């Protein structure tokens, strides 16, 4: 069952701090460009959820995954997929609703998916992607693929009953599954302590017989190490749960200016910056000179700038494509309303 | 008469209902401190407090289920579902519990609750946040169903819904919240379950509801330039369904298009077409045509999204063809 192939993901091939920093910096910069895409009026809508402040969760957990592992994400999933090796240009194109995007402009920011990289899909239903990893765990176990399936979701999903049904099944059947809760302290305008009396989410998981851990997202190395233990255990048939605490730097989506929280709180929250903290640690420990980090940042900025150009230059999906993929290729497509009307209205009987 | 948006009219209805009736509480995600995802309950918590604007965890089945229990035991809950797309998660509480309790228990008790939610396209919100699911509700015995098109109706129908003895599903349209119009919000009781004739013309009847009322009126203006005069009927409530008004106009005119944003197959338009055909067969010059959403999910791409539901242009084209 053990698979020693090196990971295709850019972070996992280099789980040291510099690699984790690089992954986090790419996520941060990508998300900043998503914000820009919106401001420039190029995004498909405003329901864009940035993972700025949460980069360590994506980078750390992804570094513990293998290429054959699968995962689902919540609506704030750009970072996780980037950490798993996504092409940021195709992501940006999808966020712009373009034909060149991962889902041909049908999904958008909240529904990016890519089976080639094990991404079973981002979800706009809070908790909606969680039970699929139980099924993926069943497949892995029965088909002996050696893969682990991970569900990424927010603290808000801790309110969804389906999470508890899923955790119970995963534990009961000893599935290779890891539940990952990214606790950014808010679900829209609701602070986590306004949605629960007990924030020790790992206790809930343990009550079902899962391995449960909580880790501070400030420390990407701690996230990576804890995730590694849990992913390895899951692969061996001991499913787990990991809650990573961090702070959602900005509003829930692009139109939300967070009037429900004080500016002082935001400023303090943004001190919990895993990218900055990792950079400082790299310098302090002499793992990389400042000039090298500056060069890396510049290279990433250029890479991410190009994603906007790609998205902007890409065509909108052709209208006729809307009937495609309702069912499998080769199956009859639904009849367009216009076609049916043409047919009905040209009938001789009239 | 006041100039008011659809959103503010809804808010005013909640304020007036809460002032008039202590038992009215609002329960749902972000309804209190945040003021509602679309701002309908903004500021209400300052007036009525957190005991009556009850913010919940993200737990839709329990929100609707709790509203059922509260309605059975003395409160008049308005349970808010942020998107109608989440109806699926709550379907047991709505259809097996709320809708059946009066009947199943032999008429001992009703469930006087309102489920407020919003649906429809128009914001590039994608496949799970843009649906029109009213057919699911209309299909279920025991549920009332309201889909207001105007600010004035939004106000009066919500006020009325909060006096009804049985569960009412109240579906707003996300593209209408910022629509501002003249409205009479005086509280004299309005007829319930009565369609509104928004425009009269002798050539064709267009029967619709919610945002498509405005699209139909737009289409009718364009048709008028070609010398085609349309009657536009806004159903307002789909349960009760005012077939009387529909039949009256269909029998006079003999040509009908029914318009619905939801997917065509087994949808609201199908039900309307069937009833009109049954009831008015001898008066029809042409088959009743359905202009409805495509039988596909909604895409995030603006082009595909807009292309997958009826537009004024599609309504106009279809009506022209019908009359040609
Ligand atoms: C079932 C469901 N309920 C409500 C929503 C609306 N909604 C979208 S995101 C969100 C908050 C989610 O919070 P959390 O799970 O903590 O994720 P975060 O946004 O913080 O990443 C809500 C209430 C939804 N999309 N799905
Ligand atoms: Mg959160």
TrEMBL record, chain A:
Domain of life: Bacteria
Cofactor: thiamine diphosphate
EC number: 1.2.4.1
Keywords, ordered alphabetically: Oxidoreductase, Pyruvate, Thiamine pyrophosphate
GO MF term (any one): pyruvate dehydrogenase (acetyl-transferring) activity
Chain segments annotated as transmembrane: none
Dehydrogenase E1 component domain sequence ranges: 23-318
Catalyzed reaction equations: N(6)-[(R)-lipoyl]-L-lysyl-[protein] + pyruvate + H(+) = N(6)-[(R)-S(8)-acetyldihydrolipoyl]-L-lysyl-[protein] + CO2
InterPro entries: DH_E1, PDH_E1_Alpha_Subunit, THDP-binding
A Pfam match: E1_dh
Job description of the protein: The pyruvate dehydrogenase complex catalyzes the overall conversion of pyruvate to acetyl-CoA and CO(2). It contains multiple copies of three enzymatic components: pyruvate dehydrogenase (E1), dihydrolipoamide acetyltransferase (E2) and lipoamide dehydrogenase (E3).
Protein name: Pyruvate dehydrogenase E1 component alpha subunit
Provenance organism: Ancylobacter amanitiformis
From TrEMBL, chain B:
InterPro entries, sorted: THDP-binding, Transketo_C/PFOR_II, Transketolase-like_Pyr-bd, Transketolase_C
One Pfam family linked to the record: Transket_pyr
EC code: 1.2.4.1
Gene3D superfamilies referenced in this protein's UniProt entry, alphabetically: 3.40.50.920, 3.40.50.970
Cofactor(s) of this protein: thiamine diphosphate
Gene Ontology terms, MF aspect: pyruvate dehydrogenase (acetyl-transferring) activity
Keyword Oxidoreductase: yes
PANTHER family: PYRUVATE DEHYDROGENASE E1 COMPONENT BETA SUBUNIT (PTHR43257), PYRUVATE DEHYDROGENASE E1 COMPONENT SUBUNIT BETA (PTHR43257:SF2)
Protein name according to UniProt: Pyruvate dehydrogenase E1 component beta subunit
Species for this entry: Ancylobacter amanitiformis
């Amino acid at each position: 069952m053990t698979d020693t192939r090196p990971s295709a993901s850019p972070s996992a091939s280099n789980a040291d701090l510099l690699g984790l920093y690089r992954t986090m910096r790419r996520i941060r910069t990508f998300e900043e460009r998503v914000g820009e895409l919106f401001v420039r009026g190029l995004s498909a809508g405003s329901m864009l959820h940035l993972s700025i402040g949460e980069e360590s969760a994506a980078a750390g957990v992804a570094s513990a995954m293998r290429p054959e592992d699968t995962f689902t994400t919540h609506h704030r999933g750009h970072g996780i997929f980037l950490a798993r090796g996504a092409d940021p240009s195709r992501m940006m194109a999808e966020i712009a609703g373009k034909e060149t995007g991962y889902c041909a402009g049908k999904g958008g920011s909240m529904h990016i998916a890519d089976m080639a990289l094990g991404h079973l899909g981002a979800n706009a239903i809070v908790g909606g992607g969680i039970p699929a990893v139980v099924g993926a765990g069943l497949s892995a176990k029965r088909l002996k693929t050696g893969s682990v399936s991970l569900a990424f979701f927010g603290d808000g999903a801790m309110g969804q009953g389906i999470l508890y049904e899923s955790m119970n099944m995963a534990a009961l059947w000893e599935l290779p599954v890891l539940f990952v809760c990214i606790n950014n302290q808010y679900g829209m305008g609701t602070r986590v302590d306004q949605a629960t009396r007990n924030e020790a989410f790992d206790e809930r998981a343990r009550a079902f017989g899962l391995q449960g851990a909580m880790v501070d997202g400030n420390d990407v190395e701690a996230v990576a190490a804890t995730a590694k233990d849990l992913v390895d255990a899951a692969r061996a048939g001991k499913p787990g749960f990991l809650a990573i605490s961090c702070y959602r730097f900005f509003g829930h989506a692009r139109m939300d200016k967070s009037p429900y929280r004080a500016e002082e709180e935001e400023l303090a929250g943004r001190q919990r910056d895993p990218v900055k903290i990792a950079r400082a640690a790299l310098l302090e420990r002499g793992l990389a000179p400042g000039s090298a980090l500056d060069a890396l940042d510049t290279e990433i900025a250029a890479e991410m700038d190009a994603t906007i150009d790609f998205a902007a230059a890409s065509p909108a999906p052709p209208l006729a494509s809307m009937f495609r993929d309702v069912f499998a290729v080769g199956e009859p497509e639904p009849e367009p309303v216009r076609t049916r009307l043409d047919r009905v209205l040209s009938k001789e009987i009239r | 008469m006041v100039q008011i948006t659809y959103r503010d009219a809804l808010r005013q209805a909640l304020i007036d209902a809460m002032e008039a009736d202590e038992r009215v509480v609002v329960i749902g995600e972000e309804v209190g401190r945040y003021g509602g995802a679309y701002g309908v309950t903004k500021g209400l918590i300052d007036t009525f407090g957190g005991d009556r604007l009850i913010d919940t965890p993200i737990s839709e089945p329990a929100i609707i289920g709790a509203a059922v229990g509260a309605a059975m035991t003395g409160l008049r809950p308005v349970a808010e579902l942020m998107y109608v797309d989440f109806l699926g998660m709550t379907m047991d509480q709505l259809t097996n519990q709320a809708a059946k309790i009066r009947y199943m228990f032999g008429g001992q008790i009703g469930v006087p609750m309102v489920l407020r939610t919003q649906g429809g396209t128009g914001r590039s919100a994608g496949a799970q946040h843009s649906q029109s699911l009213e057919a699911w509700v209309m299909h279920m015995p025991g549920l009332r169903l309201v889909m207001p098109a105007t600010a004035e109706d939004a106000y009066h129908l919500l006020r009325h819904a909060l006096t009804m003895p049985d569960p009412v599903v109240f579906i707003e349209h996300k593209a209408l919240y910022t629509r501002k119009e003249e409205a009479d919000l005086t509280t004299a009781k309005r007829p319930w379950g009565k369609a509104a004739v928004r425009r009269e013309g002798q050539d064709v009847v267009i029967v619709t509801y919610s945002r498509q009322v405005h699209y139909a009126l737009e289409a009718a203006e364009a048709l008028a330039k070609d010398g085609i005069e349309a009657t536009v009927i806004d159903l307002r409530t789909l349960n009760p369904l005012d077939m009387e008004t529909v039949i009256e106009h269909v029998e006079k005119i003999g040509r009908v298009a029914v318009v619905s944003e939801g997917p065509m197959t087994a949808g609201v338009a199908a039900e309307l077409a069937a009833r009109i055909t049954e009831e008015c067969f001898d008066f029809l010059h042409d088959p009743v045509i359905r202009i409805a959403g495509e039988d596909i999910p909604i895409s995030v791409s603006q082009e595909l999204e807009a292309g997958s539901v009826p537009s004024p242009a599609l309504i106009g084209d279809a009506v022209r063809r019908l009359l040609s």
